[in-house]
Write a structure and sequence with these properties.
297 residues; mainly alpha; 10 helices; globular
């Protein structure tokens, strides 16, 4: 006796819809979305963009000559006719000198950090990825520089080689020491070991596994170093070890206007206000990037 299987009439059944696959966001898309919801970071980015754009386009903005002096126009107050922010101790337009001064101050802050990212990053990846005696040798060389107080090292190197080279060396040390600690966490998590099992090319391991993991923390750290470099450059110029007169630079302007603080204190504080605004914006942007990239402090 044959057993017949029951037949199921599916003619009237409702069509089965395929399950919807949830849309997953990429890492950088999530970072961009978090940054878009952070008003403080956006405001700081806009302020920095305005400062950088005005500094780069200063020759085409139709500003007054920042080097032209006039002894009859010394220390004009803010809001004077034809001088929006007044004049300095030599009768030079303060608004023009602040804009042009941003070019040198930003250059002294961004360029050493950019060079440090390249050199210090290469040394840090080499030391953290290779390990052994190579790591030990590079770490001990950096320890020699870190054995000196930072301010004393800055003054001595500035007098010997110039402020720009000094800050680049100090930023290289800062960026270098950020890499081995991050690479240690990556190696403990197994990312580097997984890369070693899947490929035999070390450059591929560095590019895919190492750089992919350290890029976020290093970018956050480098953003905070820019503000430190700007403040250090201004301090060296204030002490007479950085930019020389008559170049417009915020730290040097603070030095030349220090005698005017009793006559026009608001005017004398303007370069310091620019240093403060720029450095605090870089610091707040660093905090915003750290939160958006979910980088643990």
């Amino acid at each position: 006796m044959a057993i017949q299987s029951p037949s199921i009439d599916i003619a009237g059944a409702a069509p089965v819809r395929p399950a919807l696959t949830p849309v997953t966001r990429g890492y950088w898309q999530s970072v961009r979305r978090r940054l878009g919801r952070d008003p403080v970071t956006l405001i700081c980015a806009v302020v920095l963009l305005l400062i950088v754009a005005s500094a780069l386009t200063a020759p085409w903005l139709g500003l007054a000559d920042p080097y032209k002096t006039s002894m009859i126009r010394r220390l004009y107050p803010l809001g004077s006719p034809n001088f929006l922010l007044g004049t300095d101790e030599l009768g030079r337009d303060m608004f023009s000198r602040l804009i042009y001064g941003g070019r040198l101050s930003l250059f002294m802050g961004v360029t050493p950090v950019a060079c440090a990212l390249l050199i210090g990053g290469s040394l840090g990846i080499t030391a953290g990825f290779s390990g052994g005696w190579i790591n030990m040798m590079i770490m001990r060389i950096m320890d020699v520089f870190y054995a000196f107080p930072s301010v004393l090292l800055a003054i001595s190197l500035s007098g010997a080689m110039g402020g720009w080279i000094n800050m680049m060396i100090m930023r290289i040390m800062d960026v270098f020491y950020a890499f081995p600690s991050v690479l240690l966490a990556i190696s403990l998590s197994g990312a580097m070991g997984a890369g070693a099992e899947n490929t035999l090319i070390a450059l591929t391991i560095v590019r895919v596994h190492v750089l992919g993991n350290v890029l976020g923390p290093i970018l956050v750290y480098a953003t905070s170093l820019i503000s430190v470099a700007i403040i250090l450059a201004a301090g060296l110029s204030f002490l007479g070890l950085g930019v020389k007169p008559p170049e417009p630079e915020w730290g040097l302007m603070l030095n030349t206007l220090r005698q005017a603080i009793y006559v026009n204190p608001v005017l004398a504080a303007l370069p310091g206000v620019m240093i403060f605004i720029t450095s605090i914006c870089f610091n707040l942007m660093s905090d915003g990037l750290r939160a958006a990239m979910d980088v643990k402090a």
